[in-house]
Specification:
alpha+beta, 6-stranded antiparallel β-sheet, 3 helices, 23% helix, elongated
Length: 136
């Protein structure tokens, strides 16, 4: 992804590592989900408040590439890009080790919106993301 629209800094905690001393694969999903939620807050929306209104963005598909493992106490940068494809929001999310900017993890995450349990297009998400969205 050449155009990131948001980034946040995080740190690996010891309990996120496995017996090999590297971040357990599932924790990368936590990192990118947390990044999406923080990004959403910057647009003026809250994931939990949207849920309370019956509007749920849910993961439909993920493509994950593990490049270089993160280790205990590594600081890293989580970067996010966004496009819209039909009713899908496509997040391009990459994690970089802060010390040397090496790409550690690359992902494409496709989300769809359920409105009161039914697949639909969210005017709220479209408005919040308007300045970032491009159609494919």
């Amino acid at each position: 992804m050449s155009k990131y629209i948001y980034e946040t800094h995080m740190e690996v905690r010891d309990y996120e590592c496995d017996i090999q001393g590297i971040v357990n694969n599932a924790n990368y999903l936590h990192y990118i989900e947390h990044t999406r939620h923080l990004f959403l807050l910057t647009t003026g929306l809250s994931f939990s408040q949207m849920h309370e209104r019956g509007i749920d963005a849910v993961v439909a598909r993920m493509n994950l590439q593990y490049k270089i493992p993160l280790r205990c106490d590594d600081e890293f940068i989580s970067r996010l890009g966004l496009k819209k494809d039909g009713i899908r929001y496509v997040f391009y999310q990459d994690l970089y080790r802060a010390s040397d900017e090496k790409l550690c993890f690359k992902s494409v995450v496709e989300l769809v919106v359920l409105i009161n349990g039914r697949l639909g297009n969210s005017e709220e998400y479209d408005a919040a993301f308007a300045k970032y969205l491009t159609e494919e």
